[in-house]
Design goal:
alpha/beta; Rossmann fold; Alpha-Beta Plaits; nine-stranded mixed β-sheet; two-stranded antiparallel ribbon; 11 strands; binds iron/sulfur cluster
């Protein structure tokens, strides 16, 4: 089972929840945690695990065979990322903008483009205590986050085991790539007006992708029920609520796993796991 943990913006407690779920689940079974927040991977900071290996990650980039190129401009027109500039006598490729989609290669009428490759970052492996942690690390200045995320996702566990996917925040293509093959997505939202706005965007994205999802409300407060009312109106499952708590914030700030150092929080996280399993069974 693949459970993605996502949020409409950074700072909602997404990684805190992802590592806590992985930590709890690893008590009974092997868990794979994939850190897909490749621009700023930080799941490894919560686990004291040795770095076992670091592999270079590559993405496709087009190479032009000038012998066959007629400078028709088709490739420039099809590239949605403006990574190509067709001049009278040459086609320029801007590697930092290329996402490796291969659209230009497929649509070049002369067959004048072929697959090259560029280094986009690395994939790191750490293991121990029932957790296998893979983190994607995007090269500074590189934009091909979806390609690196696809690379990291290849290391998901077999269907009989559990993979937690820590998705990048937001609703851009990197976040979509991270969650689109998940069996279930947990949306983390905080009880603020910004939290509601970003949750609404995530819900639209989930519905467009036809993804099964539920919501965890983090930093929940008793005097503001806006998120609960929104979820009720939209018929969205609330999987659990984590209270606003200084002790949780302090634990996260020093890189500790909440369920490890604050045993009193374990029932709250176990409730979330139970709710995810139940929702996924109903959906299946
Ligand atoms: S589409 Fe092919 S032939 Fe046309 S400019 Fe691009 S590389 Fe050259
Ligand atoms: S592979 Fe995709 S992103 Fe890269 S230059 Fe070609 S069309 Fe643009």
């Amino acid at each position: 089972m693949r459970i993605a943990v996502a949020s409409g913006k950074g700072g909602t407690g997404k990684t805190m929840l992802a590592v806590s779920l992985a930590h709890l689940l690893s008590r009974a079974r092997n868990v794979t945690l994939l850190d897909l927040d490749v621009e700023e991977p930080n799941s490894h900071l919560f686990f004291d695990l040795p770095l076992l290996c670091q592999e270079t990650a590559w993405s496709m980039i087009p190479e032009i065979d000038e012998e066959y190129c007629t400078h028709c401009g088709t490739c420039q027109r099809v590239c949605a990322y403006h990574a190509l500039l067709c001049l009278e006598d040459q086609v320029l490729v801007f590697p930092e903008l290329c996402k490796g989609c291969r659209g230009c290669v497929i649509l070049c009428p002369e067959g004048a483009m072929r697959d090259g490759k560029k280094m986009i970052g690395s994939v790191e492996l750490r293991e121990g205590a029932g957790v296998s942690l893979r983190s994607g690390r995007l090269k500074v200045g590189e934009t091909a986050a979806p390609a690196l995320i696809r690379d990291v996702k290849k290391h998901a566990a077999s269907v009989n085991e559990i993979t937690i996917l820590d998705a990048p925040p937001g609703t851009a293509c990197a976040a979509v790539e991270a969650v689109r093959e998940a069996d279930y997505t947990v949306l983390v939202a905080e009880a603020t007006p910004f939290g509601l706005h970003d949750l609404e965007l995530m819900v639209k994205t989930m519905r467009t992708l036809r993804q099964q999802f539920g919501v965890v409300i983090n930093k929940a407060v008793t005097h503001d029920r806006t998120l609960q009312q929104y979820c009720a109106a939209e018929q969205i499952d609330i999987l659990g609520e984590l209270p606003y708590s200084e002790s949780i914030a302090r634990a996260c700030a020093r890189g500790a796993i909440v369920t490890d150092v604050l045993p009193e929080t374990v029932p709250l996280f176990e409730q979330i796991i139970t709710a995810v399993m139940r929702c996924e069974e109903v959906a299946a």
